[in-house]
Design a protein that fits this description.
By secondary structure, the chain is of the alpha+beta class. Helix content is about 25%, strand content about 15%. The relative contact order is 0.09.
Length: about 375
Amino acid sequence: MFHQHFLSAPGIDPGPLDSGERVLWRGRCAVAEYAFDEASSLPRWTLPEETEVLVTDRRVRYTYADGNTLSSGELFWLWPQHLRVQPGNRDTGRTATVTQIQLVCNGPEGSYPALVFAGGDLATVGDADRLANVLRQAIARFRVENATEIGVAPAHARMLSRLVIGPEFSNYQGGEGQTVSLLGSVQVPGPEPEPAEPIYAEATYDEPAYTEPAYQEQPAYQEQQGYQEPVYAEPAYQEQSYQEQSYQQPVYQEQAYQEPGYQDQGYQEQSYEQDIPVSSVPISSMPTSGNRGYVARPGVEADAMRAEEAKRAELDSRYSQPDLASRASTLAARVASLMSSSDDEEEQSGLTRLEGRTTNLSTYLNRSEDPHSRR
């Protein structure tokens, strides 16, 4: 379907003129729209010779009322690109042509729609020349006065000013006609696309075929309604913050001395073996196995070497400086055991023999059998 550029929708009243708009010509003639980009094109729409045409300093308006039907449209002076007067021929009958005034515009997609006026008050070539002169001066003056708003170049504005005072149209019946190019034209906007109507497919109804229902055994188990399978959410991994353990020196605790119990059997010399305490190595509170995220902290080997050195120093101090008080008490217990093993008579005789003697305890203190004695 072809596009209509200059005709408004049916029933639209153009209304009054704008404030300050001057009327330059008023009359009646036939109005039509052609497609000049198509050879031998038919008119897209036509209005009869009773159409009222109004030419102002801003546009041309036309209105035709036929009973309850109103047809109207307009063309602003921004759009015309060419103005042409085409005189009619001298033939009569069906081959005769009428004189036309054509306003050709630059349309979208390389089209050239044109608004044509003919007949009515434009019955002769002279009438058409006078109206064409009014249109040429109105279009040129409008573009020169509004060159800044329209975007007309200064060189084009000077050429348009010559059309205002330029030679008038002068044609004759059967002549070739005259054409004037109007600089600074603006492209005609395309029509707004019409909304597509929804297509409704006619519903078809088929007669349902009767089928005997098949017996289905009722299952014993019925799934509980409303049950929703829980969604497993994997816990987010949180990296453990590493805290270095502070080293604490182990506290040495000396074992308490226990005096050996009395035995009636023969004297048995008890070997002197002093328990040597071993200092404990500090143990880290962090697990060493079973933890996938465990990482050996730095400085573990250095702590182990310091603990080993402390252990050796403690052993050296125990061997080099034994407890003399503990050794003296041990020797006293041995002497008491020897003296209690004899009977009363031997005890008396032993006392008689030992009255004039002195006991040198240093011989017991510095015995060569004692492995811990070094003095």
